[in-house]
Amino acid sequence: MKYTYVHYLSILIFIGISCRSEAQTVKLYTADGDSITNRIIDINSSLTVKVQKNELLPYLVKYAKDPVSDQLLNEIHTLNAVLKNQVQIQESLSAEIQPGHEMEVLANYSKYIVEFYQAILSDPETEKLADDIMSEYYRLKGEGKIDLEVFPQSELYLIHKLTELSQTRKSKIQQLESISGIKIKLLAFLSNKQGKNRVHIENFDNISNDEFYEVERWVTNFSEEDKTTFENTKSLATKLNTLISTNGENLTQNVLASIKSLQCFKVLLDTLNSVVRDKEMIISQNREFVNQNLDSGLAEMETLFVDMKNLTGSFESYSDNEILFYNSIINQATNKMTQTLSSFKERLHNFPAALRNNNSRIAGLVTMADECTEIFQRDVTSISNLVSWISGMFKPFKDISDNSEELSESALEFSIDNLPESGFIEMVSSGKRENGDELQIKTVFKKPDSDDEPGNDEVVEINKFKLYQTGFYSTTKISLILAHPYNIPELDQGENFLETKFQFAPAASLLFKYGSKRSVTYNDFWNIGFGINFSSPDFNLDGQPEFGAGLIVTTLKDYVSAGWSYNFGQDVPFVFIGLTIPVGIPGPVNTVQSE
Amino acid sequence: MGLEKLDTNGIKMIVYADDHEAVERATNLSSEGPAGTERFVVEITQGDWQAIKNKLHPDQTTDQINFEEVRVMALSTINKIADIIKKGDFLSYPRVGLAYGKSGLSEFN
């Protein structure tokens, strides 16, 4: 029976509105019911979103700009300041005292009760109110009308009455038309470098779940994506090794070497010239039509050839970085050349079928035009790939698409009275996610439409949480390593072995990591991993990568790594440092040949 | 008169016996507080102050206290002065409750 009043009061504890500046309108809880206090959530977790109605009230009052609600809110704040230690006070009063600990309990109680009374005395009206309540208590006690099991002390009765008053004022605010008319919405978003997508909150919106995607805790295989990245890294390593071996010769030379259509166009132009020169002998029918088209075609091809030479010339005269700025020029040039070529081919195909099929020189011209077109298309792809790759190096993140706001209409609208207590988020149903992605929960208010103006959404609070794999987990990582062989047998040194100290090589690692549930700094910055590293260096420079395997330690989100490995093909150990390019390496890089 | 209560180990609230308002509030609140520490109301007359001074803790200085102005005085378990409500102050249950609370603070015990 001793705890009856404690239980009773416990029900009333959190009725008040918090005065804390960091108060949140929503709180997240794990499936186990643990409150998320450090803004880190597990990447695969099931979450309960609890709406803190008491914390919403100050936002609603501020948004409504209604003096009546302002006054009531101030009164609640005063009462809450008084009641802030109510739990500690009731605990002290109900504490079972061990002999010898009386002074300890007294000091503890006194500390909180002094703050309690000082808060009451800071406002004369509250002091008068409290005096009346306590007087009432002793009067009722004298009349035998107080349940002494519930309220054995006047201070507990006072706390109960002040809490009731706070609750009454809160109800009054909620009933004000200016407050009850405000529509409340809750929106969740998954934000990462790919963009921002809406996440379904059960009870708060009608949007459907995204694809099911569970981030594996124990990864043991390299994914298809890893394999593609590895191949692309391999091409990058080849290119970088070429750059090293040629003392940094311009990267674009590699592209120039692969532009085959220029030569084809030269041969085509020569052939066309000879046909035009001999046209009187070759063509016997439709002479006027064919001659006119041959002359026009020759003019077009001469323009095309000049354009082609100019384009390749621009590659020769500009550095790699400057190519970025000529992206649009290159696009324009290739578009123009494509049109010219198309027009030229159309002229040839409009020739009489007999001439086209039976005249060997005209037929040869048609075939050659088709071949050159095909080669030209490959060159255009090669050029645009190079440009986009280099552009990508300097523009690490593509523009984030953010059309998620447009979907906010699908969110359900509630008033403070019918606002659900809880919503639920299944992270595994929110699409593809990575460590470091962000879950944002926005609290949005909307005033009802009026004759003067339509009600607009206003975001009043954004709560952000970081998604990580927490606890121990494994992951794969593709990186570029700089391998430094040592203890090289004398026999292997020379022409058939690496002459530089370092060689770039693609590497794949299986890493073991720990995701902190408490420290964003650790997860986002240090993020240490250790594991096994596989690489394919080419120490003997025969173009056939060898197999290397060893140990690796990574940090700074794997951007930096180091390790020891052994080249089993050459029987040579090597140490390495690793770099992860902080951008996706696009596939088309491997269309550029270095040889 | 009850001055013998100054020899006990509880919290004491010194009030004038003819100040019914103060006596009522101090007496009602004396039944409260955590278990393990008793609260006593010591009813006095104007002439009792010298005897009270003699019962105060040896470290307690009284030079700065004008006893003529005192309406209620709260003493700790070891008779250190924890709070004084002056004549003319608004006397409420919260004010007396604060005085009891201060008497229990560790700095006075």
Write up what this structure looks like:
The complex is a heterodimer of chains A (595) and B (109). Chain A is built from 18 helices and 14 strands. In chain A, the strands form three sheets. A six-stranded antiparallel beta barrel of chain A has the order 9-10-11-12-13-14. In chain A, strands 2-8-7-4-5 form a five-stranded mixed sheet. Chain A has a three-stranded antiparallel sheet with strand order 1-3-6. Chain A has 595 residues and is α+β, with helices and mostly antiparallel strands. In chain A, helix 3 runs antiparallel to helix 5 and helix 4 runs antiparallel to helix 5. Chain B is α+β, with helices and mostly antiparallel strands. Helix content of chain B is 26%, strand content 22%. In chain B, a hairpin with a 5-residue loop joins strand 3 and strand 4. The relative contact order of chain B is 0.23. The mean pLDDT of chain B is 93.
